Amino acid sequence: MNHQHQYTIEKLKKTKSVEMSHEKGIWGKRLFPSNFMRGFDPFVLLDEFFVEPPGELPTQINQGFECLTYVLDGNFEFKDHNGNTRTISDGGLQRFTAPKGVQNSFRPVSNGVNHGLRLWIKLPSEMHGSEISFQYLEAKDIPYEENATKLIRKIAGKKCPLMLHGNIQFDDVTLAKKAFHKFTFSEKSRCFIYVITGINGSIRINDIIIEPGEGIFFENLHDLTVICREKACRFIFVSGMPYGEPIKVKGGIVE
After folding, report:
1. Amino acid 9: pLDDT
2. Most buried pick, 46, 80, 89, 222, via CB within 10 A?
């Protein structure tokens, strides 16, 4: 992966994910970067991945970004570059901040298909050379809002225990059919929504339909309403303030 572009969009841009092909036992979808959508400052990459033993996520040198790995289903053992290990189950997550090079391994420890999301967030150039840090949270640590028609898990943002360098909001949203939710955010922020493939329901924003495995990017807005269509749906909403720096990616290195 070697991309040196970032997009500025007008209002709403719908994007399909692309199929990822890895070794046996690993598959998934990449929303970006791709030919349809590259860097979206401060966001670098979003993958939805599926791993079945004995497969495991590839290990590489990572540098210049924060990585959030969110387990949707199953159990993963994470091992850091110092040999520390930690198992995270459904609804838990790991975050590493890697101004300098770091290696992690991610191995499923339960039978069947293990499912998760991985988000890369650029670090500003002034942080390069700072110390590496890790954080682990279990499902019980994640605050949530719930009523008869929706469940919103607050992965990152105000009053959330996850510590990220940037001003990032990350919500995992499940809506009942025909339900809706309105998001509000700064007009200066950049945002995207991705519909998770684990539930078949699609969503509607204005007159745009977003199916599972598709996303929509937007900026220069201050609010947006998502409507669930005929079936229950699950999606993530992510927003962040851009750094105004180019995003250059080569392998696991972000400059």
Report:
1. 57
2. 46
Find the radius of gyration of the CA atoms of the chain. 17
164 bridge partner residues: none
pLDDT tens-digit map of 132-161: 999 999 999 999 999 999 999 999 999 999
Alpha carbon distance 13, 138 (integer Å) = 33
Q: Chunk the chain into consecutive blocks of 10 residues (it has 255) and report each block's average pLDDT, rounded to whole numbers.
A: 48 91 84 89 96 85 93 92 88 94 86 94 88 93 97 96 94 97 95 92 96 95 95 97 92 89
How far is Cα of residue 52 from the mean position of the Cα atoms in its chain? 20
Cα–Cα distance, 136 to 125 (Å, whole number):
25
Q: Please, what is the end-to-end C-alpha distance for the chain in angstroms?
A: 13
Q: Which residues contact 41 (CB under 8 A, 6 or more apart)?
A: 6, 122, 190, 242, 243, 244, 245, 247
Nearest to 149 by CA among 118, 119, 173: 173
Return d(Cα 209, Cα 233) in angstroms, integer: 12
Distance between CA atoms of 17 and 166, rounded to whole angstroms? 25
Q: How is residue 31 written in tokens?
A: 């929303």
Has this prediction a pTM greater than 0.90?
yes
Do 87 and 77 meet the contact criterion of CB atoms below 8 Å apart? yes
Residue 248 · residue 255 · CB < 8 Å: yes
C-beta of residue 17 within 8 angstroms of C-beta of residue 38: no
- Do 157 and 169 contact (CB within 8 A), yes or no? yes
Q: How far apart are CA 158 and CA 142, in angstroms?
A: 12
Integer Cα distance of 232 and 117 in angstroms: 20
d(CA 128, CA 161): 24
